[in-house]
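Quick one: Heat shock 70 kDa protein 12A from Magallana gigas, structure tokens please.
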Amino acid sequence: MDDYFSPWPVVCAIDFGTTYSGYAYSMRPDYERNPLNIECNPSWSNEEMMTPKTPTCILFDKSENFHSFGYDAEKKYRKLAEKAQEKLEIDEEDDSNDSDDSDDSGNEKVEDKIEEDNVTEWLYFRRFKMKLYQDDMMAKQKLKKLKLSAENGKKLPALKVFSEAIKYLKDHFEALLLKTTIRDDCKGSSLNSDTSQEQRHTSVSTRKQETHSERSDSNIVDSNDSSWSDDILWVLTVPAIWSDQAKQFMRDAAIQAGIRDDHLVLALEPESAALLCKQLALTKKAVDIKVQMFEPGSKFMVIDCGGGTVDVTAYKVENNQALRELHCASGDAVGGTNVDMLFINLLNDIFRKDVVERFQNKSPSDWHELLRSIEVKKRGIGLKNPNEKEKELITFSSLGRLIDAFTDLNGHSKNAISKRIQEMDLKKKIKCNGPKMRIDETYLIETVFAGPIKDIVKHLKNLFAEKDVKGIDIILLVGGFSECPLLQDAIKREFPDKTIVNPRDGSIAVMKGAVLFGHSAEIVAQKRIEQGHQLHEVQEVSECVVRRSRAYYGVATDVPFVDGEHLPVCRYTNEEGLSMCSDIFDCLIKKNQEMEIGQSVFEKTFKASSTLANVEIYRSDREVQYCHEDGCRNIGNINALYSDDIGDRRLFKIQLHFGFTEKIAIAMDMKTQKTWKAKLDCIL
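--- reply ---
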């Protein structure tokens, strides 16, 4: 166990989103000079513009080997789809000219190339993050055995898909460090907030040595070594409303991607955004975020509207600028992708579901162009003055093959689609012209946008009725879906007494805030506790976030049996001849209870008769008496592996620490006082 633990020279935060993903990073000396010296990867490109994130999509070849991620995966899959369409057109042409017996060597070459890169044999996954949020599914199925379906219906283990995606982002960042002049010695160059990114990169060798001079971690490599792997703390973002199983799954995926377990922390998405907004206010770097919003005693709410989930947390600023949760994190799967699903439902109603699925399978290039168009529309619809009488028609292109497919299945009538629209009484709301479909904006808003936005507003209204959040008059809107003008307007209308703040670049607030979290004192505190330090030895905890529990957590225990109070079926006689009751839920933390950082809520001492001690952890959304009651389930086991030298049945103690973004279990040999991090396995 080290006597001292200092921060990492480099912090890289991976924001793994439902729709888009990316990373941001900073060096410790830069952070100490100005915490907002945070860089995002500048090279994501969709052939039209540079973006701070790349789509969360991944492509595997027909041998199930990783091929590409993000825009590269989109581009390759689109090319495969175009080749498949080319082959289909060739086959149709051959069918129409089947009397021609001549061979065309050019066509043979095209055929051979298409067979080599057959799109139906490649596995393309997109927006797969939300599979981890399906609690009902996770209660019935082991996450380690979970498989994801690709666009073509083929399946791969979820752990492989997630780990390869994380590995791509990890390798991309490490390559960025190595390919720049980051390791060149700057020989005395000065740094300030106006220093360019390139200048900051060229000085990292010096700054790395600055940090190493204060750090005694034995894992640090020599500053002249070519590897940075031991110098990076990786921060992986997760929704605050995710289960312990989903969080551990992400950790396991990151470890499989090559990130060391002891160099990895998880950051809660809305909390990360709050840290960034607070820092922007304190440094007066944002026009729309005032320093008064984060004065001691002030309260605010963070609504992180992502693609998959909407996470809501409420905070109070303490005298030392620490954040205290006023209510446990809440939310649901009501993110921006719900708009996409409702738009697809609209297409199903118009063209019939089987025709839309045929279009999706046979024209994947056009299909993905349509989905990208929907994503753009989310940020544009509603920008016009609401008082204007005329609503514009919203145009969707790339629908030519869908319209053709519908026409072919309806007797090749040119008027088939017009007839269908008229039958649905939508003649004044939807118009089809060639490959384009134009939809009345008002109708589109009512049909596609209104439902998801209403769900979000309803959740907020219910939350503001809670006594814990009384007095909050500031709402911070962050996340990709927060950039939807319709959502912004709806929240402003429903809560006119609140100050609604949309930070600039709200879609990357989580990503940048996670970097700040990686540099925070809480991480030092967490790592010291993992090394066996007692809570009173960790001075930095007073600066950290005080969180609240999202459920009741407890352990199964036995108590003396009481007639009339306990169930007869749980009665048994122990070795001492006493009548006992088994399966009692011993509550450690109550729902919505405050949790101080590193708070130890459970200790149990074992006599070691083997090399393994096991403690089962249970979770319930309501108060229960027994662990077998409905709604209460075993969500994890603490496994403490001892050394083989057991000796004379020595005593071992297990501690369970709450308050961090993940629960931490520590084991201690009571004779030698040796401590180590026990395995908390939440994926059963």
